[in-house]
Write a structure and sequence with these properties.
14 helices; 29% helix; 18% strand
Length: 408
Amino acid sequence: MSHHMILLLMMCVCFCGFGGQEIVTTNAAASPAAVKLTGNISQVEEAAYLRIYYGQTFKVIKNGFDGKSYLLIQNNSKMATKTKYCTSRIKSFVIPLANYSIDADYFPVSFFELLGLLGSLKGITSEYVSSECVLKLYNEGQIQLVNKTQPQELTQFAAHFIVNTDQPQSCNFATFLPMGEEAPLQKAEWIKYLGVFANLETRANQVYNVIKNNYMCLSKAATSRAAPYKPIVAWMSYNDGVWSFAKETYKLKYVEDSGGENIDNSINKVTYNISMPDDLEAFHAILCTIDVVIDETYTSDLLAYNASTFLQNLNVEDQSCFGFMANQSLWRHDKRIQKSIALDWYDGAISQPHLALADLIEALFPSANYTTTYFRNIAKGEGVVSISPEMCNRESYVPMEPSIVACS
């Protein structure tokens, strides 16, 4: 049997059942039984769309979002010079990656920062990123701006990481889509995906465990809080005369884990056209039950958007029953922003969800001694933090350490 046929057989053994989570190595020349590996490896615990398997000189990632298998070959192995795959379902990469680029639109580059991999980032498709250290490297000329409409510019990198799978892809494209997971910790665990590309599984495991433990501690403290009732929370947004209540699973999970309660699930209507009297009346009634509002309305002018703008968009004359206004609990998650476009909510809050949880706990149970990271209270006139390269306080090769929130 040829070398390539053996390798394909091994990959088939790994992925005939995507449901399995065990880490195994398959050696076709030895016993057919799986051999357990120890050491610098990662095992998936929470993520639903990620699987990792190990061989002696290679690794395989199964990506549930794009349906692809990524064969990662160690650069010091014979296989590295003899094996190359680029099909609709299988791609191969030589690791650790010599360099990489990212499709910067809504890309959570903070995962790379936590691993200390910014020094290998050599290309971005947009300067609208929410990382101060990426901006610093870009300004210094260490990262180049590449045109993603010119595929040949992207092939110069060992890997080009993307979040949008609906585009023509070259052989070096790899999908990195933690935001597609449904729970905060599932998203955070995708640091292990990048760790595999860099042979940094031990670091990835360490970072994830710190984040997970802090998240679970904060949630336990919040949900066991002695309170007469749980605050009712609504994520909502306005667009072209219509208000909508968000139903994304991870947002509802954040509310539950912070000790709050989501708006009544019996409310089967999630959109309300305020130009229609019946809709407006029903919408008004729901607003009277809410204690905390997270306003996700898109605006091109964050500095001008305030509580008055929100109330005008409601189009409700009688606001006397609005508990969230009486208690000054009207929030947005756009506190950290770069050029009014790149929100750190879609970057740092994905890799470090415990900070987003801590913000929400502060919104539900104000302590007055905690400074939020991603949320700002527009009922109190809180403004934004503009991200700039001057805010970067470490070298590109130094890993960013997770921020730990005090928890007892």
